[in-house]
Amino acid sequence: MSTVNSAKAPVKPIEILLVDDDDEDAFLTMKAFERDRILNRVHRVEDGIAATAYLKREGQFADAVRPDLVLLDLNMPRKNGREVLKEIKEDPALRGIPVVVFTTSDDDKDILESYEHQANSYITKPVDLDKLREVFKTIEDYWFHIVKLPPSR
Predict the structure, then answer these.
(1) What is the pLDDT of residue 92?
(2) Contact between residue 40 and residue 5 where contact means Cβ atoms under 8 Å apart
């Protein structure tokens, strides 16, 4: 689990859970956050099983901070992002957490299924670092400066 802090902090620190099994994608994501000082704290887990444990504060994640936003990859081993999204949105204690599907897939079926399971947004990961940085700047502006997130429970 990694954490990145931002110098440009809103009144309340924003907690992000990045769920991504691809080390290179996660590294680029964390680098983009760090380089642009985007967001406040980013916590990474590597698969859907760890994501569920983190969100439910089980096992090694017993002291995990409840995220204000989840960035969720769809294609992961053991438990994929579709299953995690469905579990989040069916759990009354978790369904208020916004989930942004952040994946390499631009398949219409994946997009439709994600929205059917109440994803709050669907973003296809850009492969270019500069475009990735633009995406994260947009995410920061929208989710942390425009939208009012639900209070933590």
Answers:
(1) 95
(2) yes
pLDDT given for residue 14 in this prediction:
78
Q: What are the structural domain ranges in the chain? A: 15-146
Q: Alpha-carbon torsion 39, 43, 45, 46, what sign?
A: positive
Q: Helix, strand, or coil here: 77? A: coil
pTM given for the model: 0.85
Q: How many of the other CB atoms lie within 10 Å of CB of 94?
A: 18
Taking the C-alpha atoms of residue 92 and residue 45, their distance in angstroms, rounded to an integer, is 22
E-strand spans in the chain?
15-19, 41-45, 69-72, 99-103, 121-124
- HSE-up (13 A, CA, CB side) for residue 137: 8
The stretches in the chain having pLDDT less than 50 are 4-10, 39
Is residue 14 classed as helix, strand or coil in its secondary structure?
A: coil
DSSP state of 122: E
What is the separation of C-alpha 14 from the centre of its chain, rounded to a whole number of angstroms?
Answer: 12
**Contact of 137 with 130, CB cutoff 8 Å:** no
- Which class is 15-146 in CATH? alpha beta
64 in Cβ contact with 22 (< 8 Å): no
Q: What is the pLDDT of residue 10?
A: 44
